[in-house]
Amino acid sequence: MPVLLSARAIVRPPVPLLTAGEARALRIDVSSREYARVRPGIHASSAGVSRLAPWERYALRVHAFELACPGATMCLESAAVLHGLPSFGECRDIHVFAAHRSASRRFGDVSVHTSVDPREVVEIAGVRVTSLLDTVVDLARALPPAQALAVLDAATSPAQGGAVTRDEVRHRATQRADQRGARQLAWVLDTADPLAESPGESVSRAVILWSGFEVPLLQQDFHYEGVHDRVDFLFPSNGAIGESDGWGKYDLADPEAAKRHLTNEKRREDRLRRNRHPFGRWDYAGAVRVGPLTEALESAQVRRVGAPDRARLATLQRTPRSRGR
């Protein structure tokens, strides 16, 4: 399974969009194979679309919808695109908030939501979206719990300027009359840690906890052999180190840079092992499958302190909110 997650704002279409009117004015035949339809009357270069990552394809669909329906208010995963909150693959639907509607409805790939509770609305790059705080509360209740944890970790991270706090999220949630997802939100609030540096680390931490392992410390620093190393997870009982790998760490698009990074990472791991730290690593796919992560930690002799939470582990499987991985 490839890594299908991102945590960055996409405030412009990842490839240029072309409306039917623009195509006519420029005498471009969008029915040719050179163009792909993103929405009715809106096209983009087929070659450009084919190179997009899943989350970029979703961002393109969000921007195409806004171009077709200017003034609509994006919410949930669609608002997350503009806020730079973690995205997991390509979301199935475009999500729109319409306070005036009497009921929520779905039209094709567009889910129109309403609520008895208002949402604060802001503009990002000319696109109306629910505010960061409201978007975080909505996603923390609606997403599978490990993904919800990644959203709150990212939103509270100092690397993102600590845009919101857990207290603000808790307060906003308690102001709402609609309490659906409140139990999950309570777990996310209790578990969130702004020291997590990637969605993969957040999902991994959820799997670690649900698999019954001890609670790890995040982003711990070591100074061995004149070198400074920082690690994703440190397990206090035996000093074991866990690393959540992501393709982005290794610049795989640049073979020479990737080779240097992989060589340095091997030296780093050897250095930590020489200084009596058992070591386990896995990637995002391994965390979602659970087995590779737990095998890595068992090999590093990380202590289990409880039984696996099989119900929550089951939520890691594909959900209807996303298209096929």
Describe, in plain words, how this protein is organized in 3D.
By secondary structure, this protein is an alpha+beta fold. The chain is 40% helix and 20% strand. It has helices at 20-26, 46-50, 54-68, 76-83, 132-142, 145-156, 166-174, 182-191, 199-210, 255-274, 284-289, 291-299, 310-314, and strands at 5-6, 17-19, 35-39, 42-45, 73-74, 87-88, 94-97, 105-107, 110-113, 121-124, 127-130, 217-224, 227-235, 240-245, 279-283. A 6-stranded mixed beta sheet has the order 8-9-7-5-11-10. It has a 4-stranded mixed beta sheet with strand order 12-13-14-15, with helices on both faces. Strand 3 and strand 4 form a beta hairpin. Helix 5 runs antiparallel to helix 6 (145-156), helix 6 crosses helix 8 and helix 6 packs across helix 9. The radius of gyration is 21 Å and the shape is globular. Mean pLDDT is 90; it is low at 247-252.
Could you write a compact summary of the structure shown?
The protein is an alpha+beta fold and 325 residues long. The chain has helices at residues 20-26, 46-50, 54-68, 76-83, 132-142, 145-156, 166-174, 182-191, 199-210, 255-274, 284-289, 291-299, 310-314; strands at residues 5-6, 17-19, 35-39, 42-45, 73-74, 87-88, 94-97, 105-107, 110-113, 121-124, 127-130, 217-224, 227-235, 240-245, 279-283. 40% of the residues lie in helices and 20% in strands.
